[in-house]
Every structure is written in C-alpha cells, then in structure tokens.
Amino acid sequence: MKKCMFIAVVGCLFGMTALAQAQVDKAIDRFFQRGESRIRPRDLRVLQLEISPDPVREGQRISFRVTLANDSSHSGRISLIVKDRDQIISEARDVNIYPRENRIDLPETYYRFSRSDHCFTVEADIGRTRQAIDVAREFCMQRTLAGWTLSDKGIGYLLVEDLDMSPDPASPGQDVRFKVKLRNDGRPIRATIRIQDKDQVIVQLEYITIPRGLSDIHFPYTRYSFQRFDHCFTVLVDFERTPYQIDTARNFCAKPMGWTLRP
C-alpha cells in the first residue's frame, strides 16, 4: 500500500513539473513571438490629423482625430501623443492598432494659441519607447477670420494695417477716396470688400482678388457727409456669402478738425 502511494506521489510530482515546464516554454515562446511581431514605429504613418471643432476659437476646448496606417501584418497596443514642438497637447494611451487604417480619437483638451505658427507632430509610445511617426504632410494650424483651422479651404487671417483718405483733411459733402493697406496671411481669395461707418456702407468693391501678403486696395471716389461728431470706420469682407469684420492695426476714426484720418 505504501509503495503504491509513493508511486502515486512521485507520479504527481513529475506531472506537475512537466506542466510547469510547459507553461514556462509557452511563456518564452510568446515572449519571443511578441518581440518578433510587435508593431514598430517605421510601420506607422499618419495619413490625416483632424481637430474638432474646426475652426476653433481662443478659449474653446479641442479634440484630435488621427488616421493612422499600420503597414505591418501585426496588431498591438500603443500610446499616441500629439505635440506642438516640445509641448504635449493630447495623449491616447493603450489603444489597439490593427493592420491597415486606424482612426483614433484623442481626449478633449484645452490649448492656447499663442504664436503665429502651430505645426503638430505625432509620436508613438511602443514598449515605453517614444518615436515620431512619419506624416503624409505638414499639419499646421492657420489663423483665419473664423478661428484657427487645420483646413486650407477657408479664408485666411486678414488685417487692415492702414486706412487712408484722399483728400485728407476732407470737407463735408466733398468726394473722398479710400485706400486700404491689407495683409492676407492665407491663400489668395476673391471677395467683396467694403468700408462702413457703423451700419452705413460708404463704399465697396465687388469680387476683387485679394492676394497673399500685403496689398493696397483703392476704392472709387464717393460722396460722404460727415454729420456726426465721431466717424469710425470698419472694413468688412464678404466671402462665400459670409461677412467677416477684418481686424485693424488701430482705430480709424475721422476727427472733426477738417475731418482727417491722420493719427
């Protein structure tokens, strides 16, 4: 009886040892298989980077969506980081990446636009190692009249650097002509541009080309009566049936000293 029990115990020990060895072998096999087949940064490409809302205004919270191509045949879990230079803006941790295209929504965040250029890079954290991912193109924010955008289809940022009137000073009831020095930081556009005194349209040019950079826009002569004490002018542009008031470098107000726009 004792001999049978001894044989049974020895058999159990051998069985447990064999099972433990098999588990270790499987773990080693999985380790090496993971090491050979895990996703590498060079397998990834950023096809598209989107923000919501777009355009975004100062003070609004934004979220990013990354369209990522995985050129390998392997799946895996990685972390994605969106950066502006050295500043981390948003991060999605431990997301599943599959072969071919993946769309990843990053958490909503607040970001302050404090410079004129904001170009984003995307990094992958794989096995606690971060590396930048190749991008299909530059993803740079542009300042527009409606806010900051990643799209290149909208109207760029416009600024009235100067507004001149001829003659200056002008007399009440006299024909005057305006010239706007306009800076366009976006793409060339065709739009209607007008000068207003409060809600009254003084003069406008319809469907003119506004090139990129600085340009002088000459308006035709118009007869305008200076009847009040204050006459402060605004410049507006109508683009794709939407009116935008253009920022100005300073206030352009005609003073009742012979009605002049000179500072």
Structure explained in plain terms:
- Helices cover 14% and strands 52% of the residues.
- The chain has 263 residues and is mainly beta.
- Strands 3, 4, 7, 8, 10 and 11 form a six-stranded antiparallel sheet that branches. Strands 1, 2, 5, 6 and 9 form a five-stranded mixed sheet that branches. Strands 12, 13, 16, 17 and 20 form a five-stranded mixed sheet that branches.
- A hairpin with a 2-residue loop joins strand 14 (189-197) and strand 15.
- It is elongated and about 80 Å long.
- The termini are far apart.
H/E element order: HEEEEEEEEEEEEEEEEEEEEE
Q: Provide the β-strand percentage band.
A: over 45%
Largest sheet features: 6 strands, antiparallel
How far is the N terminus from the C terminus?
116 Å
- What would you report as the Rg, rounded to the nearest angstrom? 33 Å
Structural class: mainly beta
Helix content: 10-25%
- Poorly predicted runs of 5 or more residues: 27-37
> What is the number of E strands?
21
Question: Would you tell me the overall average pLDDT?
Answer: 82
What characteristic shape results from the CA principal axes? elongated
Instruction: Please count the helical segments.
Output: 1
